[in-house]
Design a protein that fits this description.
Elements lengths: L7 E5 L3 H12 L3 E5 L5 H8 L4 E3 L13 E6 L4 H13 L3 E4 L12 E5 L2 E5 L6 H14 L2 H20 L3 H12 L3 H6 L3 H16 L3
Parallel strand pairs: 1-2, 1-4, 2-3, 4-5
Antiparallel strand pairs: 6-7
Helix pairs in contact: 5-8, 6-8
Length: about 210
């Protein structure tokens, strides 16, 4: 949930784990450098497309110096080396995720579900990636695209409602009325016309001038 657009992030390591980290960072708009003598095929492709910068060398002390980093991912196959990387990154003011030790990391990546502007994050604090995947699959079924549609409608209506309904308690009552209505059920059935009509009725009633 960090705003990483244009921010410097480094992944030390070039394997499958590193490739997953890089994919997520690029999706977040980060500037990504990979430090590794060998690269996963996905990373090779990204390097060829100039989507990432690569230093094709093993990590050595000083490798992170002067990179203006926000996040560092220590993703080599050596626990000892990962901790050395973490020490240097922290000395430079960056936050670190150590691939083989969630307990020693400053943060952890979460499994996410995205529905338009909605992002649901899920973590088991490193206890079980399999459990995180299981829960994610269940949540994906529960949180469908209808929530993305409604989120866009709510975002569109919010400025008008804030302007015309000054009392926070009244605004909260309106939002709960919408969420408790048949709008989401109509959207699940594909009846967006009925859903939109109900939504607009609620908004009109709330903002109507006495």
């Amino acid at each position: 949930m960090l705003n990483l657009k244009g921010r410097g992030c480094v992944v030390v390591g070039g394997g499958e784990v590193a490739a997953r980290k890089v994919s997520g960072l690029l999706a977040a708009g980060a500037w990504v450098r990979v430090i590794s003598p060998l690269l996963h095929p996905e990373l090779e492709l990204l390097a060829a497309e100039n989507a990432i910068t690569v230093r094709r060398a093993a990590y050595a002390p000083g490798s992170l110096f002067d990179l203006h980093l926000v996040l560092v991912f220590a993703a080599t196959d050596s626990p000892t080396l990962n901790r050395r990387i973490a020490d240097e990154a922290r000395a430079l003011g960056a936050l670190v995720e150590i691939a083989d030790s969630g307990d020693e990391s400053d943060f952890q990546n979460m499994a996410t579900i995205e529905r338009g502007p909605i992002i649901v994050g899920l973590s088991t604090s490193g206890a079980s990636p399999a459990l995180a995947a299981h829960l994610r699959a269940r949540l994906e079924k529960a949180v469908g695209e209808e929530y993305a549609v409604l989120a866009h409608w709510l975002a569109e209506a919010r400025p008008l409602v804030r302007q015309r309904v000054p009392a926070q308690t009244e605004r909260a009552r309106l939002w709960h009325r919408i969420l408790d209505s048949a709008i989401l059920d109509d959207l699940r059935r594909g009846d967006s016309i009925a859903a939109r009509k109900t939504f607009e009725t609620f908004i009109s009633e709330a903002v109507r001038t006495p």
